UniProtKB/TrEMBL annotation:
One of its GO terms (cellular component) is endoplasmic reticulum membrane. GO terms for biological process: phosphatidylserine biosynthetic process. One of its GO terms (molecular function) is L-serine-phosphatidylethanolamine phosphatidyltransferase activity. Residues 447-469 are annotated as: Disordered. The gene is PTDSS2. Pathway: Phospholipid metabolism; phosphatidylserine biosynthesis; Lipid metabolism. It is a multi-pass membrane protein. The keyword Lipid biosynthesis applies. The chain crosses the membrane at residues 57-79, 91-110, 122-142, 312-331, 343-360, 380-398, 410-429. It catalyses: 1-(1Z-octadecenyl)-2-(9Z-octadecenoyl)-sn-glycero-3-phosphoethanolamine + L-serine = 1-(1Z-octadecenyl)-2-(9Z-octadecenoyl)-sn-glycero-3-phospho-L-serine + ethanolamine; a 1,2-diacyl-sn-glycero-3-phosphoethanolamine + L-serine = a 1,2-diacyl-sn-glycero-3-phospho-L-serine + ethanolamine; 1-hexadecanoyl-2-(4Z,7Z,10Z,13Z,16Z,19Z-docosahexaenoyl)-sn-glycero-3-phosphoethanolamine + L-serine = 1-hexadecanoyl-2-(4Z,7Z,10Z,13Z,16Z,19Z-docosahexaenoyl)-sn-glycero-3-phosphoserine + ethanolamine; 1-hexadecanoyl-2-(9Z-octadecenoyl)-sn-glycero-3-phosphoethanolamine + L-serine = 1-hexadecanoyl-2-(9Z-octadecenoyl)-sn-glycero-3-phospho-L-serine + ethanolamine. This is Phosphatidylserine synthase.
Length: 469
């Protein structure tokens, strides 16, 4: 963010015309804006909002200040701190310091992502954390399975121990009268902490994917994958009502429905931002602070999966990556002996929600905006993470992954893939002959991303054209 130009003034709390900030406007020869930012919607559009000084200060990177603080800490450690003779303690502390310095560099120096709330620095640090996670995965990939498991003891001494096998599909009776644990103990055992976590997880996925059809496909296919792979992972074995009622209908379905309703609300909400000190009341200031943790604007995704062959293959690829990332979670915790409720798994899932939101937005823009010629940085890192996780599962858990599929499972997937391939060829035969259809992004020049009409700084979704979130 650039510094405010001299001459901007506020008299008696009033904002002058020269304090108006136009975000996303193209640079012109006579541009007297105090500062400009690259926001998440169409870079060709302009929104106006007022700056009372809080925006300028809040959006500045403060690179020199952070550098000075970092140097003060390093000088203290190097010149004044008494050395510790514990080698393991020093190694852990040094590794944490290396990660912290990298995060500080990233949060101040790397380019902004597509999202600006609650602050661009938040999404920059999410990107940096995803890079750190990818580096950790690369390091594990060069170890043996036993060494990788024992290294996790540096994080938690209780790790590195084989996990007991657990199956949820042994007794599928909903009603067992006379049972010492109760007549409905089988059902009640499933209603644990993972039930609300499952629901909120799919609510968040709905905010990320923003499409009923794609969400439903991913939800149903993951349950089918659990059926198909329960011979490899015992905890994939569940009762039929746990698969289709508890998961697909209740947790996934309700989470998707409420998530899409949230998307509709955010898509129809007017967005009008003012500087904090331009708001006269304390309640208004408090609401403005709280609104900082809501979207700056909203983009509705129209995936248009069947408009071209490239589009169809891209959407199918997105679904495949989502399913692979979900499977990786279960295989990694099984192969590396990490119990399901462990903090490592919770942090991994929370990180994937953040990086998934950014990477999918970047992927959608790359698919839909003809002016976007570069694959997003977060999408690039996510592709590397998912691929590295798969390679770790193959290297460390080959004896598990190599267990052959049952004959009926092989027949099902062969038939399913054959139907998918036949439908694809039948639908896009002219595109296949013509060399994979139209050029990148050309099928969506008039649609795809819900644009915004700007009037007096208010944004309302009214028409469709490419834009950036």
């Amino acid at each position: 963010m650039g510094k405010p130009k001299e001459g901007t003034s506020h008299h008696n709390g009033q904002t002058h015309d020269k304090d108006i900030v136009k975000a996303n406007g193209h640079a012109v020869e006579e541009d007297d804006r105090p500062f400009s930012i690259s926001c998440e919607w169409d870079i060709k559009q302009t929104q106006q909002f007022t700056d009372d000084g809080t925006n300028t200060y809040f959006w500045r990177a403060h690179t020199v200040t952070i550098l000075l603080i970092l140097l003060c800490i390093v000088v203290y450690v190097g010149a004044f701190e008494k050395p510790n003779e514990d080698g393991e303690y020093n190694a852990k502390r040094g590794l944490i310091a290396c990660i912290a310095v990298f995060l500080l560099f990233g949060v101040t120096q790397i380019s902004d992502g597509p999202f600006k709330r609650p602050h661009p620095a938040f999404w920059r640090i999410i990107l940096c954390l995803s890079v750190v996670y990818e580096l950790a995965l690369i390091f594990l990939l060069f170890q043996t399975a036993d060494d990788a498991r024992q290294m996790l003891k540096y994080i938690d001494k209780d790790l590195g121990k084989p996990l007991p096998e657990q199956s949820y599909g042994e007794d599928c009776r909903l009603y067992t009268p006379g049972h010492p644990k109760g007549s409905f103990h089988t059902f009640l055992e499933k209603c644990d902490v993972f039930l609300p976590a499952h629901f909120f997880g799919w609510w968040a996925k709905a905010l990320i994917i923003r499409d009923y059809w794609l969400l439903t496909v991913i939800s149903v296919f993951f349950e089918i994958l659990e059926y198909s792979l329960e011979h490899q992972l015992p905890n994939f074995s569940e009762c039929w009502w746990d698969h289709w009622i508890m998961d697909v209908l209740v947790c996934n379905g309700l989470g998707v429905y409420l998530g899409m309703k949230t998307c509709e609300y955010l898509g129809n909400k007017p967005y009008h931002w003012r500087g904090l000190w331009n708001i006269p009341t304390y309640s208004g200031k408090f609401q403005r602070v709280a609104a900082q943790f809501t979207p700056y604007s909203w983009t509705s995704y129209d995936w248009k999966a069947t408009t071209s062959l490239k589009r169809w293959l891209a959407v199918c690829g997105i679904a495949a990556v989502f399913l692979t990332a979900e499977l990786n979670l279960f295989y990694l915790k099984f192969i590396l002996w990490i119990p399901p409720p462990h903090l490592i798994m919770q942090v991994r899932m929370a990180l994937f929600l953040g990086i998934g939101a950014v990477s999918l937005n970047e992927t959608f823009r790359y698919m839909d905006d003809p002016t976007c010629k570069r694959f997003g940085q977060q999408a690039w890192v996510v592709a590397a993470i998912v691929s590295t996780e798969v390679l770790i599962c193959i290297k460390f858990g080959w004896e598990t992954l190599s267990i052959p599929l049952p004959m009926h499972v092989t027949a099902f997937w062969t038939l399913s893939f054959g139907i998918w391939a036949a439908w694809t060829v039948w639908t896009f035969w002219p595109s296949i002959i013509g060399g994979f259809g139209v050029h990148h992004g050309s099928e969506s020049k008039n649609g795809g991303i819900s644009n915004a009409e700007h009037s007096n700084g208010v944004i309302t979704n009214t028409e469709h054209r490419p834009k950036h979130e």
